[in-house]
């Protein structure tokens, strides 16, 4: 199995802007807002009623002129509150695992967002003020989004891998680069759903399907009004995907569908779904970047570290392990017994074949400086302290490698989406959440 390149580290800043405008009330808002009603208690944190109201107003502003596409006020509040709860849980988990974002990094993200919108950071700030949004709250929300992206990146690095066999199989069936734009409606079911809950969910999804079949509502409006998915307020839009990025349960059916057609309801791990093929297009094949490039095969030992005392302890441990290897201990066995990279530990730290920059410039510089068979001195990256042993190198055709990298990326993104959504459901289910607004407030406590 090969670790994915750090695909999650490249920030997609346009979606960040949309997320921050929607979720401008953030985890730090209670420090600047006067005490008001509590909409929800999330573990040891709270979401204020004023935060929920502002987030709902942002949605209403976005749908100005299209109010008929929005669900009733109580349903809209529930959807928005769930988003706020998930943001709280993710940022809390990020902080607990040592994720942080500096002011300089927030400044850089704002500069990129402004550039993508053909403006300067100052013009962006002025536009936010004109739109009635607090610039400090926008910065705090952007910081939260960056933290969540880093948490997701760590998740991907530790849990998501794609084998060469999976890439080979995908390439063998790739035939063309057809892409599919999809949308879905989800009626969620809780973990361990009872027979009654399953029957209620099935009845709801069949009712939504009936509305669509009778032409009483288009798919996008139905998603906004009825879907339990996080992207409900975007009309259930799942974006453009290749066939490799579509779950196997849907992929076979999608190939034979025409734009506008709907399949389902299908039962999945999250609940019942309806899926619509919105449109198709022919994507571009990866043909650029030809020529020969050098790839490396290596294994490594990772000791994770944070700043302060833990960093010193990690450095002492990696120094000890390096001394053992220098004294004749087998690198593979030392890695299996001690490495904290859970993805490669059982394989003796084997990273497979990779390009020099796949794991970041610091790691790549260490590998390229070694001879085959040589072991590095301990060195530090954002992940922690490493010792790396270079096994070999080879020359490969970059055009073919680019195609393989793109396929590996798409498979990895599909796996990440499935696993990340499962992780979020587990985190939501385990959390203490006491919802204190809405008709079902008294019955909304979950987790423990």
Fold and architecture overview:
With 448 residues, the chain is α+β, with helices and mostly antiparallel strands. The protein starts with a strand and ends in a 13-residue tail after the last strand. The chain is globular and about 70 Å long. A 4-stranded antiparallel β-sheet has the order 6-5-8-7, sandwiched between helices. A 4-stranded antiparallel β-sheet has the order 10-9-12-11. Helices cover 47% and strands 19% of the residues. It has 3 domains: 148 residues, Triger factor/SurA peptide-binding fold (Orthogonal Bundle), CATH 1.10.4030; 106 residues, Chitinase A, domain 3, CATH 3.10.50.40; 107 residues, Chitinase A, domain 3 (Roll). Its EC number is 5.2.1.8.
Any idea of the CATH class of the largest domain?
Mainly Alpha
Number of helices: 14
How large is the share of residues in beta strands? 15-25%
SS class: alpha+beta
- Could you state the CATH homologous superfamily of the largest domain? Porin chaperone SurA, peptide-binding domain
**For the largest beta sheet, what order do the strands appear in spatially?**
6-5-8-7
Query: What gross morphology would you assign?
Result: globular
Largest sheet: 4 strands, antiparallel
Along the chain, the helix and strand elements come as EHEEHHHHHEHEHHEHEEEHHEHEEHE
Helicity range of the residues? 40-55%
Radius of gyration: 24 Å
| Named CATH topology of the largest domain | Triger factor/SurA peptide-binding fold
Rounded mean pLDDT score: 81
**Spatial gap, N to C terminus:** 36 Å
Task: Give the beta-strand count.
Answer: 13
Low-confidence stretches: 1-19, 21-34, 284-289
EC number: 5.2.1.8
InterPro entries: OMP_Chaperone_SurA, PPIase_dom_sf, PPIase_PpiC, PPIase_SurA, SurA_N, Trigger_fact/SurA_dom_sf
Keywords: Chaperone, Isomerase, Periplasm, Repeat, Rotamase, Signal
Pfam family, one: SurA_N
